């Protein structure tokens, strides 16, 4: 503790000056003490920044400050700093003594590691020389051993070869023994084992072994197949197979002849045994394939028992529909197509009731009726592939063939459930040459049909004009016939096997729509002078109907699938922008959008022309009404009964007559657009040309309101509940002109004092003004002449 007398005095200077080094040591010690007090990180950071003095000052200011009593803490602070200083010095000494020891230890370890490495290198050199010496010594042994191993491997291959031959010969002997004892089922099962061996050997390079195995399989397969086929045909003959007559007239087959249980038992046994030969039959028999240009889907061969059942029908087909037979007429494809359908129908019940249960017992998921249909379909495809090149350039014959084929396909799919994924006639029609010819003929006949439908006397008359409920669209006969034509084309190509072919037909449809639109436009231009005439309205109805139907088709699943296919094609060919691709992908647009947009544009132009025509007539009829002396008409109190202005009669009669005429000739949706556009133009015209162009006394304003609300507006009441809402300008102008004097003065004052402010809007809304702006209302108020004389 310092004596009280020394409190507040500065410390005394040292008696003798210190040398520079001593001063430096003292400063470093002071730094250490301060670092101990402030914390090592902060002081070192502060010292680096050269701000040590300021931190010391701040520290003393904090601990002592201006309070003299705080000097009592100095002893404690000095003791604390001295203690921290001693701890730091000890740490420095400890670290200074440990570092050399660690360095020495690291050097020692490094030296030892070097010695170990040298030893390892010496050992490696010794081992390398020893190994080389051993390899040289063992080289003759290795050569001898390699030769022995090669001999052993060759012997093993020979043994394996002999084992395969032994297995095959053993199976062959077993088949022979089973056949000698008439055990055909076991013989067939053994042949299946032999076929499995043949399949396993397919990857082998032993050509002779493969040939031996295949020859053995072929030998026994032929013997078994011939025997089973002969027995199977005998059983079928007992059932009077095939059934040439319809099921209703069949006396056998589905009926129960004598010995029926035994016959059906034999049928099942032989059918199952023939199924066992299926694998070997596929292995040995090359299936008949049409040329690759027809792109038939890959499918397994028809199962062997069904092939045998089809044999007599195939013979009949080739006998009647090939060569010079009278039944083989190229212009009558319906003969052989109908014959195939009849055969399928005649045998369907037997196949479902007698053959399908056998297949279900055996296990494989095979449909007997579809297998039978597949076999007959191959006859049809072969016949079509042979006939089409002969009639390709005869439009009538080719078109007739396509019609009959499409009818055949429809019945085959709908009546007998033949899947579209199997090979069918559409694959033949999709062959490039045939398909392009089909497109050409389809376009040719469609254009001919369009010519005839537009030149018909009833082209512009609706078929249902006398049936109100049906004739909402007022569709002319030509438009309905055209859309029916497009629908028929869609039904004709919708079962094509590939999306690319369907897209080509879709382009044909779009071309036809565009061609029909152009024809309608040409006829419309001829009728432009009579834009309210019957034919002009019929054309407009036709355009509207086609656009509406195409918009509905755009949401059809079939066309949505085509849209997805088109998206993939466009993406591959980069024929559309990213925006267009995005719109197609998100279903914002459709495959018919281009056509719909053109039709909508034509519809808009035609409607606009009609509205303009009627509006010109209305303006001509309103000339007298515009010249009415609104300024000098008698007030309502001076008249016994309000009556319509005589000058308004031509105007109202024109509006009424045209509305009735177009309501009768246009469909509902078009007429709705027409009268709403007309009302909009009429509202603005009356407001600008009659109201704003005149001044009104009390009687004139009342007469205008009477003419509008009691005569003009009601003309549209049959088309909407509140027609006055479509005449907003005129209605609100009448309100302003017919306000009583007090309300009008008050409104005028409010508008002048609160220009553009909410109070002005509220005042307008209170009197029923929502459409007109404040400036418009002020103009209307100034058009009134019945203001009181205020002396201003």
Automatic annotation (TrEMBL):
Keyword match Coiled coil: yes
Spans annotated as Disordered: 1-23
UniProt GO BP: endoplasmic reticulum to Golgi vesicle-mediated transport; mitotic G2 DNA damage checkpoint signaling; regulation of ER to Golgi vesicle-mediated transport; retrograde vesicle-mediated transport, Golgi to endoplasmic reticulum
InterPro entries hit by this protein: EXOC6PINT-1/Sec15/Tip20_C_dom2, RINT1_Tip20
Alphabetic keyword roster: Coiled coil
Coiled coil region boundaries: 71-98
Cellular component, GO, one term: Dsl1/NZR complex
Family: Belongs to the RINT1 family.
Annotated protein name in UniProt: RAD50-interacting protein 1
Source species of the chain: Panthera leo (Lion)
Encoding gene per record: RINT1
